[in-house]
């Protein structure tokens, strides 16, 4: 295999030097286009070193929900940085982490009252698995070593979380023989799939610690929607079979669907919930794994080994927690959830014309998510579309078989229209270029 192509003189020095050494995420370094050099961000705009500007259609992997550089988050972080960016959490308390825990407990439904912090979504899901497994272990149930998860699901890139992802269509099929084997089921969207899940619970339930699901939308699986009844079924089945239920709200939580949490829409409380991405308004890494009182109480004991055996170096990082507190302030002070519903109305109407384009399989919108599902047959087609969107001044990154938008909740009408217009222009071009007509 040959080395990545050398860069032209048009790129800044730092990109030139660093490109020979950096390893980019989910990127075939031999064939991928050179990344765009970014100098700053503001609102929904990404400013480029070549003087250009892009409207961000995916809010930096679904995270920058208040737009970039919101002054309230920035000022809060600057103050915290000056006082104390970090101090270890074991045995020491910092105000932002403790305040954030109380606020999250107040905000989340039911008795989801205990918050454990980590630095990425994947690790927060790992922690949810660990909590569930150790909860049973502490009660002497040592056979519950597996998890039930769903086709179309995505929960992260670490080994345990890869094992929860869709084993065939997901990003991690190549690791099938390496990651632990889990029980992969179809979401119980109808009687047939519900009965199949019941059989799985009856046959394998005693070996399983928890059911893990992305509630209402499977994001990285292709922006696949299911309805609230699925979550109610899962809760009923888990209760009937004495199983824990984990909701991975890393994508859908904190406003994405027009409510603070997806589970509220179904009036269902999971035993454990994970949050990340938008938790700091997309400014700095942080994730939270939130457990119910019942689950937490399963760790209370006079035996040290019954405590939660977990403690990453940067858990409860004060700077990240200050950003999260500022982000929650914005949900309180500004009409975020209404803004999301306005975006949903816009996406629903503006993407509809794509439905008639040959090669388009579906068009759907929910909350801040608009997706056009396409008969994409090669990675080259995705690359071609991505480049066309950049030509039009838009940062839209189709993956798998969807071209999608998940803009900042604060995006204005004009920028949102530029994004939806770009999709409505590029989708027919793709259809003609790749012969789907
Ligand atoms: C539902 C869900 N869970 C987990 C993750 C992993 O989060 P991270 O990329 O922060 O590790 C993601 C990331 O996209 C996600 O969408």
What descriptors fit this protein?
437 residues, alpha/beta, Aspartate Aminotransferase, domain 1, Aspartate Aminotransferase, domain 2, 2 domains, 7-stranded mixed sheet, 4-stranded mixed sheet, 14 helices, 16 strands, binds pyridoxal-5'-phosphate
List the SSEs and their pairings:
Layout: H1 13-19, E1 38-42, E2 45-48, E3 53-56, H2 59-62, H3 71-83, H4 95-107, E4 112-118, H5 121-138, E5 146-150, H6 159-164, E6 183-185, H7 191-204, E7 208-213, E8 217-218, E9 224-225, H8 228-240, E10 244-248, H9 262-266, E11 272-275, E12 287-292, H10 293-297, H11 318-333, H12 336-350, E13 360-366, E14 369-374, H13 379-391, E15 394-395, E16 402-405, H14 413-433
Parallel strand pairs: 3-15, 5-6, 5-7, 7-10, 10-11
Antiparallel strand pairs: 1-2, 2-3, 4-12, 8-9, 11-12, 13-14, 14-16
Helix pairs in contact: 3-11, 4-11, 12-14, 13-14
Bound molecules: pyridoxal-5'-phosphate.
The site of pyridoxal-5'-phosphate has 14 residues, from helix 5.
């Amino acid at each position: 295999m040959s080395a990545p192509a050398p860069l032209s003189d048009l790129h800044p020095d730092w990109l030139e030097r660093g490109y020979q050494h950096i390893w980019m995420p989910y990127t075939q370094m031999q064939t991928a286009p050179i990344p765009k050099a970014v100098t700053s961000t503001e609102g929904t705009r990404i400013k480029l070193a070549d003087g250009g500007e892009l409207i961000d259609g995916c809010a930096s992997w679904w995270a920058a929900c208040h737009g970039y550089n919101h002054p309230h988050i920035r000022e809060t972080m600057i103050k915290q940085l000056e006082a104390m960016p970090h101090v270890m959490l074991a045995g020491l308390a910092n105000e932002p982490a403790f305040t954030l825990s109380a606020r999250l407990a107040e905000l989340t439904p039911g008795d989801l009252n205990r918050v454990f912090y980590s630095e990425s979504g994947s690790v927060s899901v790992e922690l949810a698995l660990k909590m569930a497994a150790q909860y049973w272990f502490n009660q002497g149930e040592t056979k519950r070593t597996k998890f039930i998860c769903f086709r179309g699901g995505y929960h992260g890139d670490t080994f345990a979380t890869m094992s929860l992802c869709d084993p065939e269509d997901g990003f991690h099929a190549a690791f099938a023989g390496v990651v632990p084997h889990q029980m992969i089921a179809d979401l119980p969207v109808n009687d047939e799939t519900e009965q199949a899940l019941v059989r799985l619970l009856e046959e394998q339930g005693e070996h399983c610690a928890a059911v893990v699901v992305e509630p209402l939308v499977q994001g990285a699986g292709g922006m696949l929607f299911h309805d609230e009844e699925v979550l109610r079924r899962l809760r009923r089945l888990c209760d009937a079979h004495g199983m824990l239920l984990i909701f991975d709200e890393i994508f859908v939580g904190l406003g994405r669907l027009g409510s603070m949490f997806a589970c509220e829409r179904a009036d269902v409380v999971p035993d454990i919930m994970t949050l990340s991405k938008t938790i700091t308004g997309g400014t700095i890494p942080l994730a939270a794994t939130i457990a119910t009182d019942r689950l937490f109480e399963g760790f209370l004991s006079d035996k040290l080994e019954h405590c939660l055996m977990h403690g990453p170096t940067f858990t409860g990082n004060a700077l990240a927690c200050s950003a999260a507190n500022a982000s929650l302030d914005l949900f309180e002070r500004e009409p975020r959830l209404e803004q999301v519903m306005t975006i949903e109305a816009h996406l629903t109407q503006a993407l509809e014309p794509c439905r008639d384009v040959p090669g388009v399989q579906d068009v759907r919108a929910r909350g801040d998510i608009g997706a056009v599902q396409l008969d994409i047959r090669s990675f080259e087609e995705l690359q071609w579309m991505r480049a066309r969107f950049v030509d039009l001044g838009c940062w839209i990154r189709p993956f798998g078989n969807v071209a999608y938008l998940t803009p900042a909740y604060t995006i204005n009408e004009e920028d949102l229209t530029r994004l939806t217009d770009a999709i409505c222009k590029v989708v027919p071009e793709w259809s003609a270029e790749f012969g789907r007509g």
